[in-house]
Amino acid sequence: MNRIDRLNALLIHLQGKPRVPIGELEERFEVGRRTIFRDIRSLIDSGVPIGGDAGEGYFIVEGYHLPPVVFNKEEASAILMGAKFIERSADPHTIQTFEKAMYKIKAVLKYSDKEYLDNLEGRIAIRPSPSPNPTPDSHIAEIQSAIATNRLIDITYYSQYNDATTQREVEPLGMVFYSGRWHLIAYCRLRADLRDFRADRIQKVKILGEHIDPSKHPNYMDFLNEALLGTDAKEATIRCSALVARFMGEQKYYQGFVEEKKLEDGRYEMKFVTPYYDYFARWLMMYGNQIEIVSPNELQGHAATLAKELLEHHSAPFLAKT
User: Is residue 177 part of a domain?
Assistant: First the structure.
């Protein structure tokens, strides 16, 4: 990045936050502290009202506004890719809001870049996963607002496991997209504990006046990881052929994949961390005799039991005929 581009990017970065630590600027632009000092001085000399210092961070004095942002075609193309994913994974309100944003982005492009983006847009698609219903209005906008302003919310929530609808006051801590759905992680005052709420099962949202302190609760991602992986995670080591290693692809990451190494005989040895040996063994069954369970004995036992059950189940019709 040349100095002119860096100065422009530095100005945009400062404009985007109330105060920016100098360490963040060093990391963002991959330059030393002295270079950052010189760049900030150059911006000040050009008339940009920058306050702060190296100790507490820098900021642009409130009231100063940048000229309209202009995107180049590469930046606009990257946003277009994101828009394609939003079309398939967001609720109707979010999709509509993003479409408005895309119109504004296209409006500031040069004519040649607009044509470039139009040609690209018609030739990029996201193939939707099979789903019986479209994504409902998940009240994502209200939830986002509550998270950003640290406000208590009142929700009406449908729990599928007991077919019940309850009204709860919850302290929103964060949102996570996984398993094809948005989830709200929040402290539920009704249950007096952290809970994972599927956004598409939230029927109503009301933002209340009370402010909350998220720092009083555990990190929402730590809670989610513990809930998904379990607190009693166990190690497992397997060996497989190169063909199976290739077929596994990204599936292995959903099973707790940790590391792998290639053996002298061309096979691969992989280590996993999983909370449920029975579930993990069932996943391994799909690869048949191309998998060898190295350890532990408990996992080998689960696999042997499953293999025996499968043999008895599928051989029963043939044995009955004889």
Answer: yes
